[in-house]
Amino acid sequence: MRKKREFVEGMAYHVTSRTNDKKRVFECNVGRKTMLLVLRDAKEKFKFRLANFCIMPTHIHLLVIPAPGTNLSQIMHWIKTHSAKRWNSIHGSTDHLWGERYYARPAKDLRDYFYIMNYIDQNSVKAGLAPSPAEWKAGGAFYIARNITGMVDFIPLDRQAYIKLLPAVPGTKFKE
Fold this sequence. Notes:
By secondary structure, the protein is of the alpha+beta class. It is built from five helices and four strands, in the order E-H-E-E-H-E-H-H-H.
């Protein structure tokens, strides 16, 4: 039997989950759009903060702050179940969409929080999917750069603090 996960209310978690057999489910626009809609619907249902995200061809990265009274397991169970149902409905399939359990680790402190923000932002660039994080439409940086509300929950001060902290984060290549 699996060990029950422990979560701390109000904590930010970096969550990743891979597709089954690393299938490139989110490589196509339909796959990414489906995942974006599921994330939007999950936010409405559970009222969690989505500080950042990146949908990659074979996996997702989320920076989630669950609302009081909601735990991360409930949120992720709903996201994974509903994305699989929608994907299978669109493709007339009954396959498993997701592989193993999701991975989640808490942000240790503010510096770690911003390190995770940068790590998530840089995923699409490192994979050669976009020239900059702000150009990847399936990532939080795209929404933040364009001040598109409703998907990513951020406070303008977050981005300013983020930029100030970046020189201290190893491997950062972010320009002001």
